[in-house]
Specification:
This protein is an alpha+beta fold and 102 residues long. The protein is built from two helices and five strands, in the order H-E-E-E-H-E-E. Helices cover 33% and strands 28% of the residues. Strand 2 and strand 3 form a beta hairpin. Keywords: Signal.
């Protein structure tokens, strides 16, 4: 009986162990949102937020723009609960690089 129960629970355990990234959603004219859920992966909050931030930066770069004005939130999970970071951000025109002197 315990082996049968373990076989039934295995797919559920595998699904919850998977990390997932949300697609970038456009909230309004110039605000976007992306999320990253670490599932049961043993990641720190810094790592989770960095994955979401990288997705946001890549989204802006794909449009030839620069990542700007991020607002980072999380589900504040602790222990073995899945951790999720959510970043709301804008994409601005790239800042001009001043010419080098010399």
């Amino acid at each position: 009986m315990p082996a049968r129960l373990a076989l039934l629970l295995l797919p559920l355990a595998l699904l919850t162990a998977c990390a997932s990234s949300g697609a970038v959603k456009q909230l309004d004219k110039d605000r976007y949102q992306v999320s990253y859920n670490a599932g049961m992966k043993p990641m720190t909050w810094v790592e989770i937020k960095n994955v979401a931030r990288q997705q946001a930066e890549n989204h802006c770069a794909s449009m030839g723009l620069q990542y700007a004005r991020p607002e980072v939130t999380s589900n504040k999970a602790t222990g073995l609960l899945p951790k999720e970071a959510i970043i709301t951000f804008s994409c601005d025109e790239p800042k001009a690089v001043p010419p080098k002197k010399g």
